[in-house]
Design a protein that fits this description.
alpha/beta, Rossmann fold, globular
């Protein structure tokens, strides 16, 4: 079985956009910017035998605030810049109660079936407690990047880091080879 690092996109791989005090995904290529150290981090993870899979909620498509084409264009750019093995997207809003939207683990479980991944040997890296919850429910070790959002009833992460670059040494130290 393979091992993976599941990565939230917005807030872990690329910068979020802040409007009226709320974070949101970039909607255009001009708003898109990778965080420093992300390319190096992905190379290190790949060199250590991890698949790198993005799992991202993109409900603003369903809300009509951004087009699916814009989301796909940004994902194409991510694939162009990084050694990403797969990108799983949930377009549902909270109200739709689907199985793929984080905090539910549907995207991680789907990827584990697609790629033959051992979830117990894998990691979920996100910037929200809903990302952590998805990882915990799937059976992964979890890392919260940045301050997070309101924790609410979500579980605490196994580790906290200020960036993906800072999280990689912890991941490599916890991986079983």
């Amino acid at each position: 079985m393979k091992k993976a690092v599941f990565l939230d996109r917005d807030g872990v791989i690329n910068r979020t956009i802040f409007r009226n005090g709320k974070a949101r995904a970039p909607y255009t290529m001009t708003e898109f910017a990778l965080f420093d150290g992300v390319q190096q981090s992905i190379v290190e993870l790949h060199n250590s035998g991890f698949l790198c899979i993005i799992v991202t909620n993109q409900p603003d498509v369903t809300r009509g605030w951004v087009s699916l084409e814009s989301v796909e264009m940004i994902n194409h750019k991510v694939r162009e810049l990084l050694q990403i093995d797969d990108i799983k997207i949930c377009l549902h809003t909270e109200k739709e109660n689907c199985i793929c939207r984080k905090p539910k683990p549907g995207m991680l479980i789907e990827a584990s079936h697609d790629w033959g991944i051992d979830l117990s040997a894998s990691f979920m890296v996100g910037d929200r407690f809903s990302d952590v919850a998805a990882g915990v429910t799937a059976g992964c070790k979890t890392i919260l990047v940045g301050p997070g959002d309101e924790q609410g009833n979500f579980p605490s992460p196994d580790h906290r880091a200020s960036s993906l670059l800072e999280a990689v040494p912890w991941i490599l130290g916890k991986s079983d080879g």
